[in-house]
Amino acid sequence: MDLDKKHPYEFHHVKKNSIFDKEIEIRVKPIGLLKLFFLILILILVFFMGRWSVEGVPFDFNFTSGSTPETVPRVETTTPRTTTTPAETVPSPAPVTSAPAAPATTDTTVAETSDEPTITTYTKVDFSITSADRRWLVDWGKITNVGYIIKNNEAGTIKPDKIIMNVKGYADYDKIVLIPASHKLIKAGQERSVNIMVPKGFAYNQASVGDLKKVEITLELVDADGKLIKSAVRTFDLSG
């Protein structure tokens, strides 16, 4: 029997090569590698900028530590600004009265005591105004000090407490001037001559007082209970 006829079909084993057995050739251009590097760098920067803008985390590229960076609060130091105001230039006023004014001083003397009876009904007290010092400021003035004399002709001690001051033309405005402690007790027969400062001064102008050479000042001497002891009126030249 013929062998060719016995096996009409012949099978041949064909070896197939796998795709993994093929060699792959990769060609890299330097310019392409450089572009890839810059792309990765931009992506990293965008990532950290997003974290910083949302969480307020500062840029820190130190990857050696996994701990969260410690945020130190910023302390702002403000230096106060000093403003210097120029001093007001005031011309020296001319003397108002011929009698020299005694300098006003701050009295820290403790009031004395008296064994005499205290008088509360006043009929024999002499009270007069001796001077009025003023400072002139362009078109208005300010009374800074007033001088007065108190003489006690009563049969006992008087205790003046304050003076109520008024200037003609300012009927609705009174200035309270406290008497120094050493002058708040005056025994029978004693006399006190004082030049006292008017607190913050008494401002005036020609529109209110009229003739500046004839300004009328009134002082009322009052005790601690608000009872009038004696009043005095005098006209002064307070012009500039």
Can you walk me through this structure?
This protein is α+β, with helices and mostly antiparallel strands and about 240 residues long. Among the domains are: about 35 residues; about 110 residues, Sandwich (Immunoglobulin-like). The chain contains three helices and seven strands; from the N terminus they run ααβββββαββ. The strands form two sheets. It has a four-stranded antiparallel beta sheet with strand order 4-3-6-7, with no helix packed on it. A three-stranded antiparallel beta sheet has the order 1-2-5. The radius of gyration is 52 Å and the shape is rod-shaped. The N and C termini lie far apart (about 165 Å).
Quick summary of this structure?
This protein is an alpha+beta fold and 240 residues long. The chain is 14% helix and 29% strand. Among the domains are: 33 residues; 112 residues, Immunoglobulins (Immunoglobulin-like, Sandwich), CATH 2.60.40.10.
